Description:
Bound molecules: zinc ion
Distance between the termini: 75 Å
Largest sheet: 6 strands, antiparallel
Mean pLDDT: 88
Helix content: 40-55%
Structural class: alpha+beta
Amino acid sequence: MASTVCGWCGDRTHMIPVSKPIRVPALFKDVYTAAFQCSNERCQRLSVGTVRREGRYTAPEVEMPKELSLEWEPRTIRRPEFPNVPEQIAVTASEAHACLSIEAYRGAVALARAVVEATAKDKGITRGPLVAKIDEMHQQNFIREITRQIAHEVREGGNEIAHGDLADEPMPPEDAEAIVALMDEILEEVYQGPARMLALKQNRLDREQRNTAKQNGTQSSP
Ligand SMILES: [Zn+2]
């Protein structure tokens, strides 16, 4: 049975065929498309599944729902939130993920670079190429040594984007995923981790204050 992450509800569900497969005109391949219904009780919306194959089905209604890899519309578009990151940087980071989820790899990499540039600028680091800014972020203890090293390893793909050689160079999905993962890690180390630690510290101070107030209250009561 066809199973996928439903583009409407985001759950991994079984897709139940609700229309006969239609064979559509296409060059070189045999392309079939059909309507499917999400089996999630709370969703039940329709998606279109499409398959491209060599040669026709003999019994499309039986064979097509058994396909393991259909293309689905709508797709699931990931837009994660970055709650402790300055708003404009957070929105751009979220868009980098959205690009990844629709396989717009060059777009994802270009945005991920913009996010790292903006993060450095937010911390007052504005000089030199991106890689120098990443080194400086490490110098100033915003990011870890391992993160700096990985940034050096994955930077090549990103640099091609910046230098406008984009159309000449392939952008394999793994490279784009690595660059977006690096962006996530930098946001984690610069903003999100410290924000969580500050919240812990604040909680502790609040608790101490409450305890002191309680003790004072006990002492002053008759
Ligand atoms: Zn659904």
